[in-house]
Specification:
The chain is of the alpha/beta class. 41% of the residues lie in helices and 14% in strands. The protein folds into two domains: 153 residues, Rossmann fold, CATH 3.40.50; 59 residues, no CATH class.
């Protein structure tokens, strides 16, 4: 982690509620995306297009560097009409997640704001971390997807919290940082996975703080 800007640290440290994204924030999706690219390349379309899994992954990474990491768009850009599914079974909890959540939950209310399919609470329970969260806001449950700012407003209402008293931690500039800033929340960009390839291009995309992994959050939120 870069040297902490003390003013920015105070902004996030003095919040009351910390919201987390899930993918590449609490859960490592690396294998999921590798498998998805491999499945996309293992098709009659891919053979006709002469496209390999490495080709798909390269274009996906380039899309992430442009803050445009939509797999469907990547696949269509390459000429595919059928899109390989995302396989949740390859998700893995980041090793530090439980320890970090346990420590942060001593001083803060914790929540989740995530684009996820039905059953998010069950998946968090499966990973052993549901008990740390006071609020779980899933796009499937509320009918709104990030980056729509209204999903953040829904979360704030459920937490009975003002935007100024909340911070959003996520891996994506487009889905996490920009919309959270729009509603007035503080933001922390956790530069893990594909989201870590994003690039801050202007002030609207600049988070209050950046960390490289979950463990660095403990230093960020330290007294």
């Amino acid at each position: 982690m870069r040297d902490i800007d003390k003013q920015a640290q105070n902004c996030v440290r003095l919040c009351k509620v910390i919201f987390f994204d899930v993918g590449f924030t609490l859960v490592d999706e690396t294998e999921c995306w590798q498998v998805r690219c491999a499945e996309q390349a293992n098709s009659d379309e891919a053979r006709a297009l002469n496209i390999t899994a490495a080709d798909v992954y390269d274009v996906l990474q380039n899309a992430c560097r442009s803050n445009l990491q939509n797999f469907g768009n990547v696949a269509r850009q390459l000429g595919f009409t059928q899109i390989a599914p995302y396989r949740k079974k390859y998700e893995k909890l980041y090793p530090a997640a439980e320890t970090v959540l346990a420590q942060l939950s001593r001083n803060y209310k914790l929540g989740v704001i995530a684009n996820q399919s039905q059953g998010l609470r069950d998946r968090l329970a499966h990973f052993g971390i549901l008990r740390f969260f006071d609020y779980v806001i899933s796009s499937a449950d509320c009918g709104v997807n990030k980056p729509d700012p209204s999903i953040f407003q829904i979360a704030l209402r459920k937490a009975n919290c003002t935007a100024a008293d909340a911070v959003m931690i996520g891996d994506r500039i487009d889905n996490d940082v920009v919309p959270a800033k729009l509603v007035g929340m503080k933001t922390v960009w956790i530069k893990q996975g594909l989201g870590g390839l994003n690039v801050v291009r202007n002030e609207s995309e600049r988070p209050d703080c950046e960390v490289n992994n979950l463990t660095e959050l403990l230093r960020l939120f330290a007294d």
